[in-house]
Amino acid sequence: MAHTSRKPNQLGDRKGDHLRIALDGPVQRPGASNGLDRYRFEALSLPELDLNRVDTRCQLLGKTLAAPLLIGAMTGGTNEAGRVNRILAEAAERTGVGFCLGSQRPMLEKPEEVTSFDLRDVAPRTLIIGNIGGIQLRDEMDAGTLESLAQAVGADAIYVHLNPLQEAIQPEGDRDWRGVLDAIGEVAAGANLPILVKEVGAGLGEETLRALRSTGIAGVETAGVGGTSWAQIEALRQHAKTPRAIAGAVLADFGTPTAQSIIHARRALPNRIVIGSGGLRDGLEVAKCITLGADACAMAWPFLVAAQDGVEAVVAAIEGVIETLRIAMFLVGAPDLLQLRQAELHYIDNQDPRERR
Ligand SMILES: Cc1cc2nc3c(=O)[nH]c(=O)nc-3n(C[C@H](O)[C@H](O)[C@H](O)COP(=O)(O)O)c2cc1C
Question: Taking the CA of residue 123 as centre, how many other CA atoms within 13 Å lie in the half-sphere pointing to its CB?
């Protein structure tokens, strides 16, 4: 319980800073790539398909989604965060995609903070995934309390987020990460709801994924390099060039790019859920992630930006992603997501094709 002494209002201030800095940007290191630009689909000019019959639906964690898409984990715990969450959850309900809550840590410290996370009145049917940090899990929770945290907000599953890079850069961050894997193993064995593990922008690498294989988790979300960088955001939060701020700027694209993380995750966890995320910005990238092995994808920052203009703007952004995915599926001859998995996706290397023999 070493970390429970932090005042809830400090946590609220930090969440507020995070939202503001994420919106002002830049949220990633210039030139950082999610790795998907190295892949191209082969387009079919004779697809032998009716575009109107292309089916983007998928099953995830016991629910049917209109497309393999989730609004990524972002926020909760302040009035402003609650307002953003309601906009995002309502848009998810209207479009049939999943919705992930931001860290529910404020609820551990102030149970009344549940209001900014409890969205079942606007999203009664939506797949909702709760969220808690690996450190809070280790220090403050067991399988029972984790289940209660999910139940309090009607979540279908819960994410444990791993953010050692962010914590290392954050002035008030947790620097001792010993024992987190064991804590995940214990709750995954004991809890009566699906537990998934996610990064927050440095990507799950091969060794981490192999370690997670020994636990009973239901799946992972990659949150790879190439998208929102928490090292960068924490560096921007420090107004002076402190040693940690310098480290944050340098390490802003440290880790495993999204494309690579999905490939590693599918290999390490062949029969579990793999959600691709980290810098995904359109439906073509979602299509590539599915072909690389993801079951679904999450996008966070683009929907935070859209939410500033209200529910309609988020709905329009989601519909744009789904329509792009549908047309990409049509053009690679995939009537459904199973077939999209088999589509021809070529890796573009640096060699001039005319030199290849
Ligand atoms: C404003 C903001 C707040 C976030 N808060 C959380 C969080 O509380 N818990 C978590 O697991 N991930 C959090 N994330 C990380 C995202 O879920 C996601 O993994 C990461 O941003 C990469 O996706 P993106 O490039 O689409 O933004 C947050 C991201 C943003 C932009």
Answer: 30
Rounded to 5 degrees, what angle do the CA atoms 146, 267, 188 make?
15
Pocket test for ligand 1, best of 18, 74, 230 (most atoms within 8 A of CB): 74
Residues in the chain: 357
Phi and psi for 288 in degrees, rounded to 5?
-60, -40
Residue 31 to residue 177: CA distance in whole angstroms: 30
Task: Using alpha carbons, select from 144, 179, 174 the residue that is nearest to residue 158.
Answer: 144
- Overall pTM > 0.90: yes
35 contacts 256 by C-beta, under 8 angstroms: no
CA distances from 94 to 89, 101, 163, 235, 302 (A): 9, 17, 31, 36, 18
Residue 157, classed as helix, strand or coil, is strand
Nearest protein Cα to ligand 1, atom 23 = 278
For 19-51, the DSSP string reads: HHHHHHS--S-TT---SGGGEEEPPPSS--S-G
Residue nearest to ligand 1 atom 22, measured at CA: 278
Q: Note the pLDDT tens digit of each residue in 5-57.
A: 444 457 878 888 999 999 998 988 889 999 999 999 999 999 999 999 999 99
Residue 269 φ/ψ region, left for φ over 0, alpha for ψ in the -120 to 50 degree band, beta for the rest: beta
Model confidence over 128-172: pLDDT tens digits? Answer: 999 999 999 999 999 999 999 999 999 999 999 999 999 999 999
Binding pocket residue ranges, ligand 1, CB within 6 Å: 18-19, 22, 72-75, 102-103, 131, 159, 161, 198, 200-201, 223, 227-228, 277-280, 299-301, 304
Report the CATH fold assignment for 8-348: TIM Barrel (3.20.20)
Q: Greatest CA span in the chain, whole angstroms? A: 67
Q: Where are the domains of the chain?
A: 8-348
